[in-house]
Amino acid sequence: MRRRSTRIPVTMTAQGHLIFSVTCALLAHKLPLTPALADANLAQTVLAALASSLLPDLDHPNSVLGQRLRWISIPLSRMTGHRGFTHSLLAVALCILGLNSDLMAGCVPLAVKDALIIGYLSHLLGDWLTPAGIPLFWPLKQRFRLPGWSLKSGGAIETSFCTLSLLLAGYWVY
């Protein structure tokens, strides 16, 4: 007879990250975090945030993106491990530099670039809420998480938290 695992998941699910990215996109649009996001089409903002919200987990071959882009995921996982480089402020800085490079000039509207960063940051924020935390200052191994409270992920609690945050953000925006 196989024993049932009682281990509590410590990472947010892809579904949780997607829902949470919509929440963050709505809040970024409403607050407005940047002038471009304030004037942006809300649907465009949400779609861009959704598109980038799973990117940090590319460092895990079993993640949604990792399974589809194994040629990137496997070497990245071997080099940095899961929740390594891609879950750091250094990765965010490199994404910002890449989006603002001459190669991207004129190709992607500023509001979409901002929303892509919001989606990426929403992933980091979501993982910051979990017991495993994130290595904000990678390559330093210290992990940071919300002190005093950790989101138990992978089940009803995570789904409820993400859905409730989305409903509250949606209510506030509209």
From TrEMBL:
InterPro entries: YdjM (IPR016956), YdjM-like (IPR007404). The chain crosses the membrane at residues 88-111, 117-138, 150-173. It comes from the Bacteria. This is Putative membrane-bound metal-dependent hydrolase. One of its GO terms (molecular function) is hydrolase activity. Pfam families: YdjM. It comes from Aeromonas molluscorum 848. Keywords: Hydrolase, Membrane, Transmembrane, Transmembrane helix.
